[in-house]
Design a protein that fits this description.
The complex is a heterotrimer of chains A (279), B (361) and C (287). Chain A is built from 11 helices and no strands. With 279 residues, chain A is mainly alpha-helical. Chain A has one domain: Orthogonal Bundle (MetI-like fold). Chain A is globular. The model of chain A has no long low-confidence stretch (mean pLDDT 88). The mean pLDDT of chain B is 89. Chain B is an alpha+beta fold and 361 residues long. In chain B, the strands form 4 sheets. Chain B has a 6-stranded mixed sheet, sandwiched between helices. In chain B, strands 13-12-11-14-20-21 form a 6-stranded antiparallel sheet. In chain B, strands 15-19-16-17-18 form a 5-stranded antiparallel sheet, with no helix packed on it. With 287 residues, chain C is mostly helical. Chain C has a domain of 147 residues: MetI-like fold. Chain C contains 13 helices and no strands. In chain C, helix 1 packs antiparallel against helix 13 and helix 3 runs antiparallel to helix 10. In chain C, 49% of the residues are buried. Classes of the chains: A mainly alpha (279), B alpha+beta (361), C mainly alpha (287). Chains in contact: A-B, A-C, B-C.
Chain lengths: 279, 361, 287
């Protein structure tokens, strides 16, 4: 086997950096299976003396409610956002002309500016809507759902527009010439061909919604309506006991991490497309 | 099946003016060839007729009705793309059936029509395959089948043979004309190949740089090219165009070409034309003599063997000429040959306007 | 051309609606920032630029600006360095599968909720139980990771861990786009790995640098979850978003809105050129 210096150096660098990289995850997992006594006594990075799963069970029970809430909001919101986003993206694509030239950059600007800067007016709007519709929205699951939708649909539209734009133009044109109406073209030709792009957008956005902290923090009181709030609720608790906190963080991070492990390909594709336009 | 009329089409892209006032008629039931070199505006014209592009100015009429503002899905056009544009996720059968499904026809009717057209194009055996599994030539047939399967107002073909290798191209020409005539309908076929045009078309529209240079019955346009542009491009091989000086006009025209003089019989020039003219000689009308004493001396610059014929590029006393030999002919560059030009086959064009002054026969 | 206006409006309506709402939000911010609206004065009295003068005379806000900019500068610098290093290392391997696996590995911190990361790192930085235990075991001096300005540097380091893999991903994507024949001709000319990287691959990867910088900057501007979950409103790690949120939590709406306007304006410097030129050139392939 040919001796390649560059591969050797690369391996050394990667082994070093990857050990550093996994450290927090290791600490998280190790910490969450430590018993109370163990956690009080031993420093963070030590392995647990005897793994104790009671902590995890307790944390899971504590988190179950907020995880369910998050799933109830995030999963439908993701699907709806990506569906209407892809429909709009296709409409922009077909319309062409000035619309296709100016609207996507407009959507991009809306997506890339710090979203937190718009939370205050949004909440003020929600408050006004509450009065007009006589329906409570602030600090409710459906209110949070609506705000997620407002924030994340433009991002979904941008992503879907990039994917749609990358389709071979003539195939869409052939469908039109065949006599298909735009919605039929979307259903029979565009959607099947968009497949992986569609899924990538879904996965990427699902993880974003699950991990979002600022929106639930601003839109609700208490800690129950979203998983990130629940994890946050452990912070600031005085004392030297980190095992339950870590168990909670671990369980709360499990869904997106699992998605990342099994569907990582799509997450990365969504990420790359969002930050530089899918190549 | 309708007449297609385009009037005064103008289309400009970012920097390029693709069409500058294109008008022509494609008669119903006839095959009209849209001829022109690369960049002439053929694809743009077809796309405007199909509704995939809007002209900046000008109108499109199907059978008298103005369709310019109608979107493509409402025009009932059959279009064969240069790149075929087959649906990669559907089988050949579904590709062909697509326009019929869009019309909402019942399955039995769809099945009958698809199989009939597949039979016509000899692709019945690949109906269940996917586009990725078949050859280029087969994909092209599928694309044509998809266009022909419906009863369209007009069928448009955008250089469908260009992406195939030339042996298949030649073989398909004859077969296609038969199929197209059998199918019937108004057809517009775009191509940059004069031989293909002559093999397939009834009428021709010669397009060059976004302008219609000539239109009419195809053999007439070919044999009587309206001007030097048509003569140069719509001719296989490309016509030799040489400057000549008119020496006398009695009983035909005597033209001095420098390396020889030709007496063009039965040619009459209008009064205004004096001095120089442009003489057109088809390479097929220049004979290379292997022996004998008559003829003009010329030096071989290079020989281009194309299949079973040869184009010989010659330098004749400073003038470049191309001669056509209907068999494989090899002569080393620099060798001398004798040429014979038949004055009865010579064209004359106006020196300044390029317009046709005299055509043989 | 293929879509009539009415049908377009129908298909695009919800999205257009949301976008209008968000732009209404920008306008609202500008409007309210010019008033005295707050919990103490719930009236929309126009005060012109008075709110802004209050904002910029607040030392806490000036600090927040400095902190956010420091964060941006360091994240851009360190993020690009670490990202480039990892990318170059990964690129040395021939197997596409291995490269893909390694890249995903380094990107994993992005899949973890930032508050969870905050929880972990808060404890890794703990003086009694975290890194310090191992530092002293190795005979090295203990570091007060979260005290004073150290807190800022520590958290910036954490953000390099969060985003470094992503930046490596951007570089790798740029590397893969280097035309094969350029690499091949360099190899034929006898270039070794180092020369290949330095003279051929990296110069072709300016796009990776550009995107890495743009997004590091944007991530720094949005920095909230991490510092807030570790140190709340600690003045040494109070980014602009934390400041703004704090004002909002105390219902001093006009100052919050003014801070938002400033934040949007800052990001616009990068976002508007990228969204208009970048998107059109690289994504729409419109020149």
């Amino acid at each position: 086997m040919k001796f390649k210096l560059n591969v050797l150096v690369a391996t050394v660098i990667l082994v070093a950096t990857s050990t550093l990289w996994i450290l927090p995850l290791y600490a998280l997992v190790a910490g969450s299976v430590k018993s109370l006594a163990d956690a009080m006594g031993s420093p963070l990075l030590d392995l647990p003396r005897i793994p104790d799963f009671e902590t995890i069970v307790r944390a899971f029970n504590a988190l179950a409610g907020s995880m369910l809430n998050t799933a109830i909001i995030a999963i439908p919101a993701t699907f709806i956002a990506v569906l209407i986003g892809s429909l709009a993206a296709f409409a922009i694509y077909l319309r062409g002309g000035r619309v296709a030239n100016y609207v996507p950059p407009l959507i991009a600007i809306t997506t890339y500016i710090p979203y937190q800067a718009l939370i205050v007016p949004l909440i003020s709007l929600i408050r006004q809507a509450e009065e007009v519709l006589k329906v409570p929205l602030y600090d409710t699951l459906h209110g949070l759902f609506i705000v997620f939708l407002i924030y994340y649909t433009p991002m979904a539209t941008l992503l879907m527009f990039i994917f749609t734009n990358n389709l071979p133009r003539e195939i869409v044109e052939a469908a039109l010439v065949d006599g298909m109406k735009p919605m039929t073209v979307y259903r029979r030709v565009v959607l099947p061909l968009l497949g992986p792009g569609f899924v990538a957008t879904l996965i990427f956005m699902l993880v974003q919604m699950w991990n979002n902290f600022f929106i639930p923090l601003s839109m609700t009181r208490g800690y129950e309506k979203h998983i990130t709030l629940r994890i946050f609720s452990y912070v600031g608790q005085a004392g030297t006991i980190y095992n339950e906190m870590f168990a909670a963080a671990a369980i709360g991070s499990l869904p997106p991490l699992l998605i990342f492990v099994f569907l990582g390909r799509y997450f990365v594709r969504g990420l790359l497309t969002f930050t530089g336009g899918g190549r | 099946m309708v007449d297609v009329v385009v009037k005064d089409l103008y289309k400009k892209y970012r920097r390029k003016e693709a069409l500058k006032g294109v008008s022509f008629e494609a008669l119903e039931g006839k095959i009209t060839v849209l001829f022109g070199p690369v960049g002439a505006g053929k694809t743009t014209t077809l796309r405007i007729i199909a509704g995939l592009e809007r002209p900046d100015r000008g109108r499109v009429f199907f059978g008298g009705a103005d369709v310019t503002d109608r979107p493509p899905q409402e025009r009932n056009v059959g279009l064969v793309f240069q790149t075929f544009a087959l649906y990669p996720h559907l089988s050949v059968y579904e590709n062909i059936a697509s326009p019929l499904r869009a019309q909402g026809l019942p399955q039995s009717e769809i099945d009958e029509k698809v199989r009939r057209v597949a039979e016509m194009l000899r692709i019945s055996d690949i109906l269940e395959k996917g586009p990725a599994e078949i050859s280029g030539g087969q994909r092209q047939r599928v694309a044509i089948a998809r266009a022909l399967v419906k009863d369209a107002a007009v069928y448009l073909f955008d250089e469908p043979l260009t992406n195939l290798d030339y042996k298949i191209r030649e073989a398909m020409r004859g077969e296609l004309r038969k199929i197209l005539k059998e199918r019937g309908g108004t057809m517009i076929w775009a191509t940059p190949d004069p031989q293909e045009a002559l093999a397939l078309g009834d009428y021709v529209v010669v397009l060059h740089n976004g302008v219609v240079e000539a239109q009419g019955e195809i053999h007439e346009v070919y044999n009587r090219p309206r001007n030097t542009t048509v003569a140069k491009y719509f001719s296989y091989p490309s016509m030799n165009l040489i400057k000549g000086v008119v020496k006398s006009r009695e009983d035909g025209v005597l033209v001095d070409l420098g390396f020889t003089a030709l007496k063009v019989p039965r040619a009459k020039l209008p009064e205004e034309v004096a001095g120089e003219v442009v003489v057109g000689i088809r390479p097929t009308d220049i004979k290379i003599l292997l022996a004998g004493e008559h003829g003009i001396w010329g030096t071989v610059v290079l020989t281009e063997v194309l299949g079973s014929e040869t184009l010989v590029h010659l330098d004749v006393a400073g003038t470049r000429l191309v001669a056509h030999v209907p068999e494989i002919f090899r002569a080393p560059p620099g060798s001398s040959v004798r040429l014979l030009i038949d004055p009865g086959r010579v064209y004359l064009f106006d020196r300044s306007t390029g317009e046709l002054l005299h055509a043989p026969g | 051309m293929a879509l009539k206006l009415r049908q377009f409006a129908l298909m695009a309506l919800p999205v257009l609606l949301f976008i209008i709402i968000l732009w209404y939000g920008i306008g609202w911010n500008i409007y309210v920032s010019l008033t005295s609206y707050s919990l103490y004065k719930p009236r929309l009295d126009f005060v012109g630029l008075g709110t802004y003068s209050d904002l910029f005379s607040d030392t806490a806000f000036i600090n927040a600006i400095k902190i956010t900019f420091a964060w941006a500068a360091l994240l851009v610098l360190l993020g690009n360095l670490v990202g480039l290093l990892i990318a170059v290392a990964i690129f040395q391997f021939e197997s596409a599968r291995l490269r893909s696996l390694l890249t995903s590995y380094f990107v994993y911190p992005l899949a973890v909720p930032l508050v969870a990361s905050g929880v972990i790192w808060r404890w890794l930085f703990d003086s009694a139980k975290g890194f310090n235990v191992y530092l002293s075991k190795l005979g090295l001096p203990e570091i007060q990771w979260l005290s004073g300005w150290n807190a800022l540097w520590s958290l910036i380091g954490v953000s390099v861990w969060v985003y470094g893999g992503f930046i490596a991903l951007l570089y790798l994507a740029a590397f893969y786009n280097v035309p094969r024949d350029v690499i091949d001709s360099a190899l034929v000319d006898g270039a070794d790995a180092l020369t290949l990287m330095a003279k051929v691959v990296i110069p072709h990867s300016k796009l990776g640098l550009l995107l890495g910088t743009i997004f590091s900057f944007l991530f720094a501007l949005q920095m909230f979850d991490l510092p807030y979950s570790v140190l709340f409103t600690n003045p040494f790690t109070m980014t602009m978003v934390i400041y703004m949120y704090n004002k909002f939590a105390y219902m001093i709406i006009n100052i919050s809105a003014a801070a938002c306007v400033f934040l949007i304006a800052l990001s616009a410097i990068i976002v508007i050129p990228y969204a208009t030129y970048g998107i059109r050139k690289w994504i729409l392939k419109v020149m």
